[in-house]
Predict the 3D structure of the following.
Amino acid sequence: MMSDQTRSSAAVLAEAAAAAGFAPSVHNTQPWLWRVHDDVLDLRAARERQLQASDPEGQLLTVSCGAALHHALVALEAEGWQTAVSRMPDPDDPDLLARITLTSRGGVTAEAMRRFQMLGLRHTDRRPVTDIPPDEQAIEAVRRAGSTGGVNVHRLTPDQVGELGSAAARADQIEIMDPEQRAEIAYWVGGDRPDGTGVPMEVIPEAVTPSIVPGRDFVREGHLHTGEGRAEAIDRAAVYLMLFCDGDEPAGWLRAGEALSAAWLTATELGLSVLPFSSVIEVSATRETMRRILAFIGYPQIVLRMGNADPDRSFPPHTPRLPAAQTIEAGH
C-alpha cells in the first residue's frame, strides 16, 4: 500500500480490502464481499461461495471471513490508520459480519510493516515437516498471537495428537463416502480453475505420505513434489495447536478467524510451516472428539500443524485469488 496523504478514505479502504484477499479460506473459497462507502468498510458473507455440504451452518465461512478481516486491519495499521471495528453490527442482517471505520492516522511502526509484509508470504504447505522440532519460543509466540478476542489456543499433548490423527482419518472417510461432500471436494479441488478460487493441483502433494495426523484426502494426487518416500510415520516433530472459543456462535467464529490470521502471520514471520486441519471440525462426530480433547470447556474452531519446512524445498506456489472487482464493491 502507498502512503499518500491525498488519497480518499474510500481508496484507502479499498486497498485494505484488496490486501485482505491474501487471507486463507477453506478450500480457497474466498467467501467474502467487501463494500466501501465513505469512511466505512463493510465485510459481508458471500454465500454463493459457501461449502453447502461440509459447512452448512457457515462456521468455516465465517472463520475464513474473520481471517480476511484481520488481514484488512493489518493493512490499515501498516498505513498508520487507527480504526474502530464493529462485529455483527446488525442483528437483522446476519451476513453483515463486520464494519471497519477509519478514526485517525498516526505513525507506522516497524512491527506493523513486518506484519503487513507477511500477508504476501503466508502460504499453506501440505508437505511433511522435518524431524527437527520447532523452536519452543516460536511456538509460544504463535500461541500468544492466537489467544486474542476471547479465542484460546490449546497445544495438544502426544496422546491427544494420536486422537487427532484418528479423528482426521475418520473425518476424511466420512466425507469421501458422502456423495454430496465428495462432489463438493471435486468441484473446489484440482482441475482447471480460471475463476481464481479453489485448490490447484500444484499445491496438492503428488503422493500420500504416512503421518500420525493424515492430511485431507483430496481423492486425487497433485503435482507438488514431497521428496523421497518413507515407510514410517512422519511429522513426529510437529506441534499441533487447537483454536477454540467459549461459545459456538457466529461472533466467536469470526473472532476465531481473526486469531487464525494473527497466529499464522506470526508463524510465517518466525519461519514456521503451517497446515490447517478443518475436516475434524466439519464432521459432527469428530468435532465432538475435539471437544473431548478440550475436556468440553470450549468449542474447537480449527487445528494447526506447526513445524520446520525442509530448507532444501522451495515454497509451494500460492493459490489463485479472485480479482478485486469480484470481492470489492462501492456502496452507499
The longest helix spans residues 158-177. The radius of gyration is 19 Å. The first strand starts at residue 32 and ends at 37. The chain has a mean pLDDT of 91.
